[in-house]
Specification:
With about 170 residues, this protein is an alpha+beta fold. Helix content is about 15%, strand content about 35%. The chain has 3 helices and 8 strands; from the N terminus they run βαβββββββαα. Strands 2, 3, 4, 5, 6 and 7 form a 6-stranded mixed β-sheet that branches. A two-stranded antiparallel ribbon has the order 1-8. The longest helix has 11 residues. The protein is elongated. The relative contact order is 0.16. This is DUF177 domain-containing protein. InterPro entries: YceD.
């Protein structure tokens, strides 16, 4: 997803709008649990200041993954706002992206911003009931009939205090 920034370099400080669509075949960096279902849509503005190009906007994509509670596949649309800097020379204090010439590649930036915006645990719905701990039945589809595991009777460490306070009240 290449953005030609020649106009911005010739007119520093002026903002230029852009829209583009491209494919992410799969999300890399160990995030193979996502299947990409739609093209990646990016829109925003870019501006040159000195040797830096500032890109701001939003991206949108549709993904499929597995619910962390019930293990069923589900799809969702993710929208992410971004504001990034592209630089010609990366120094240790910079967290921008590199570019050269009159073009910047937005693919790595888009993928990184998308991955960083995802929650640690994705759920098919907020009230997902997950799996039965005994038989692994998906509880979103109804009860499994298993008896809940009996809790071992743990001695209450505050039982003695409760007895002391109940004697004082009498």
């Amino acid at each position: 997803m290449i953005l030609n920034v020649a106009e911005a370099i010739k007119a520093p400080g002026e903002q230029f709008p852009f829209k583009m669509e491209g494919r992410l075949e799969e999300l890399s960096r160990g995030f193979d649990r996502f299947k990409v279902l739609s093209p990646l849509f990016i829109e925003g503005t870019y501006m040159a200041l000195g040797e830096s190009i500032f890109v701001e906007g939003r991206l949108k994509i549709r993904l499929e993954t597995t619910c962390h509670r019930c293990l069923d596949p589900f799809t969702f649309e993710k929208k992410v706002k971004f504001r990034e800097e592209f630089v010609k020379h990366l120094d240790p204090d910079s967290d921008g992206f590199l570019y050269s010439g009159d073009e910047i590649d937005l693919t790595d930036m888009a993928e990184q911003d998308l991955i960083l915006s995802l929650p640690m645990r994705l759920l098919c719905r907020e009230d997902c009931l997950g799996l039965c701990p005994t038989c692994s039945h998906n509880l979103n589809r109804g009860s499994c009939g298993c008896q809940p595991p009996e809790e071992e009777a743990q001695p209450n460490p505050f039982a003695q205090l409760k007895q002391m306070f109940s004697k004082e009240v009498d």
